[in-house]
Amino acid sequence: MRRRLAHSLVASKTPAKSRGTSIKPTVASLTSLAYENGLLPNALDELVGLLVTPSHLDQASLAAIARNLYPVARVSRHVAIRVIGALGHGNLKPSLNVQVALLKWLIMVHHVLETPAVLAQAYGVLFNLLDTAAIRPNIFSLNLSRQTANDPYLIGLLRVFKDYYPEIILGELVRGKASAFKHPDISWKERLQDIQDAYALQAEKNSRGALDGFQVNRTAGRAQGRRIVPAVHTSHVNENAVTLEEIENATGFVQNMDRIELPNQLVAVLADPLLQKLLLLRPNAEAYQRVANWLNSVLQNVIDGDADEATLWEVLAVVKEFVVESKSIPPVFLIFFARFFQQWNGSGQRGYILQILSYAPLLEFQELYEHILQPLELAVLDNAPGSQVDILTLYTNILRHWIAMLQSSDPIPPHANTSLTALIRHTGQLSLTLLQTSPTESVNVAIVEFYEQAIQLVNDDMLKYYIRIELPPSELIYIFLFSGSVTTISRLCDILACYKKGFEMAMSTKARNDGSNRIDALSYDRAYVNLYNGYLMDICNCFWRSRAFSDADTNSHGCMIPRPTVSKLTSYVSSVDKTFSLPSLFSLSYSPVLCLQSIHSVRDLEDAAIASDSSIRTRHAGPVTQATLSKLATSGGIQLSWQEYRIEVLRSLAEKNLGGIAELLKNTMTVLKKSMDATPRARAKMLSQDFS
User: Which locations, inside or outside the cell, does it occupy (predicted)?
Assistant: First the structure.
C-alpha cells in the first residue's frame, strides 16, 4: 500500500499529460487495499491531505479515494479539522462533489472520532457554509428558511429543533414532506466496524501475546464467538487460591505463582501466553495429557463426521502458533500426531504440520522416525520435487532445533550422537533422490544449506567433542563438485574443509575407557578417514594439480569414475584437440565454472599494471597455462609466475565470497597455506619453489 500511496501523491501534483502512465490502476489498487485492510493513521492523514488540496487527479479517482477512507483506529482531531477547513468556496478548495463525499465521511466516522467535540467547536464554520446548496443536505438552519422555501433537509432539521425546543414557533414550515434523517451509508459503517474489529483483535494479540503476556487473553463481542480454542476460565476456586484471570502484571504473576489455580479447560494453553508461562514454570504432565486428549477428540469428531476438516486445520493453526512461540512440542503431543498421520493423506495446510514438527524433541531418531517422520513421509511424499524439498527443509529445521537444544544442554544426552548422525545419514539419502528427480540449482542450495547446518556441530566448541562427523554420500559430493554453479562448489569445499578440523581434533584425542561419550581417536576407523581424505585429494587433483580423475595418489578415488570411462574420455579429448588433455580440463584455467573467474583475475592484475607502467603493451589471451605465462613475459605483458597466478585466482574468489575452494586447498596443502598467509616478501620466496 505504501508504494501505491506514494505514487498517487506524486500523481496528484503532476498534470495528466506529464505522466508516463495512467494513474487509474494505481488508485484502483489503493482503494481496494483500503477496503480490505483499512488505513493506518498516517496513511489516512496523507489521503485526506490529497483530497483537500488542489489536485491533478481526475474526479472519479478522487471520489473513489473518498469512498474508501476506512480508518483502522480512531480519527484524530487534526484530520477532522482538515476536512472542515476544506469546505466552502474558493480556488484552493476541492470540488463540491469531493466536499460532499468528505462531509458524508465525517458524519459516518463521527462515532470513531478521537475528539467528537471538535464538530461542536467548529459549529460557527459549518453554519456559515449553509448557503452552499451542494453541501446543505447535511448543514441546515432556521435562518435560511425564508430563502430556501421547502428544502426537505431543512425541514427535517427544523422538526428536530421542534422536538427539543417546543417553545420555538415554526408554523407551516414543518408541515411539508420530509423524512427523518438517515445514515448516509449503512453498509459503509458495517464495513468500517469489521475493519476496526479485526485491527483491534490483532493489536490485542500483539500487545498481550508478544509484548506483555501477563494477562489472560480476553476477547469479547463477535470475536469471542469465533474462538476455536476455549478461553481461560477458572471456576470452583479454593479460598486461598488465585485465578489467572486475576493476574494483571508480571509482579502479580510471580508473587502468586504457587497459588494460581489451573483453569477448567487446559487446552486454553494453546492460545494464552500467560497460561503457557505458568505451565513452563510449573510443569504438569497431566495438563498436557488433557490437551492431547482434546486434540484427539477433535480428530475423532472429524473422522466420525461430527466436525468438518476445516475445524481441524483451524485447531492445528493454533497449535502451530503455540509451538512456534514456545519452540517445543510437548512429547505427549506426538501421540496425537502419530494417530493423525494414520488418517492424513497429505492434503490441506501441509505447512502447519511441517512448522510444528520443526520443533520435534530430541529423541532416539529411530523411534521418532518410526512413529512420526516415516508416516509423515508416506503422507507427504508423492514423487514430486516439491514434496521432497518440503521434507528436506523440515529435516534442516529439525537439525537446527536439535543443535540449539544441545548448545544449552548440560550434560549432553547420551543418545544425541546417534540421533543426529542418523538424521544426517537419512537426509543424505533423501538428498540423492532429490538430485535425481530435480537436478536444479534451487535443490542444490537446499541440500547445501542442510550440510552447512550440520557443520555447526564441528564449529561449536562443545558439541565437536560429542557428535561424530557424518559425511555426505560420495555421489552427492561428486555431483556438487561438477556442478554448474561456482557458488555450490565453493560451499561444498567449505563444508569439507570444516570437517577436517573435526577429524584432526578426534585424532589428537586419546582414547578413553571410562564409558565417556566424547569423540576420540577410536571414533573413526581408518577406512572412514581415508574416504574423507580421498575427497580432498580428488579436489586438489582437479583444481590445483591438473590431475583430474587420477587414482594414482594415496587415498585418491579418481572421482569414483570407472577406469574404462576415464580411458575413453582421455582418447576423446585427444581426438578433438591434441593440445588438450583430460586432466587439465578441470583446472582453475579450464574448469567450466572457474575459467571466467580465473581470466578476470588476470585482467585485474593487467589493469593495475598498465595504470602504473606504460610499458605493458600485451594482454594475455587466455586460458592461462604455465607456458603461456612464460611467453607473456617476453612479449611485453605482465610478469606473472604460475604459482602467483593460481594464488591470485584463489584470492580473487575469496574476495567474491567464494572462498571455500581456497580454504579446502589451504587446509590440504600446508605449503599453499603458508604461502597465502605469509607476508609479501616471504611469499615471494615461497613462490620460487615448486608446489604443484
Answer: Chromosome, Centromere; Nucleus
Could you tell me if residue 213 is left (phi over 0), alpha (psi between -120 and 50 degrees) or otherwise beta? left
Between the alpha carbon of residue 33 and those of residues 2, 6, 105, 135, the distances in Å are 10, 14, 18, 29
Strands annotated E in 347-469: none
What Cα–Cα distance (Å) separates residue 80 from each residue in 34, 85, 87, 134, 663? 19, 9, 12, 20, 65
Number of residues that make up the chain: 692
**Residue 568 per-residue DSSP state:** H
pTM, full prediction: 0.66
Alpha carbon distance 24, 6 (integer Å): 14
What is the rounded distance in angstroms from the CA atom of residue 451 to the CA atom of residue 480?
12
3-state secondary structure of 233: coil
Please tell me whether the peptide bond between 414 and the residue prior to it is cis, using omega within 30 degrees of 0: no
State the DSSP H helix or E strand holding residue 261, giving kind and residue range, or none if neither: strand 260-261
Q: What ranges do the domains of the chain cover?
A: 2-139, 595-687
Q: Which residue(s) pair with 260 in the sheet?
A: 242
What is residue 353's three-state secondary structure? helix
Instruction: For residue 311, give the nearest of 323, 298, 292 by alpha carbon.
Output: 298
* Cβ density class 88-109: b for 16+ within 10 Å, e for less: beeeebbeeebbbbbbbbbbbb
Rg (alpha carbons) of the chain, rounded to whole number: 37
Which among 658, 667, 651, 633 is positioned nearest to 486, based on CA atoms? Answer: 658
Within 10 A of 466 (CB to CB), how many other CB atoms are there?
21
Tens-place pLDDT, residues 67-118: 999 999 889 888 988 888 888 888 888 888 888 888 888 888 888 888 877 8
Per-residue pLDDT reduced to its tens digit, 339-370: 889 889 888 889 999 999 999 999 999 999 99
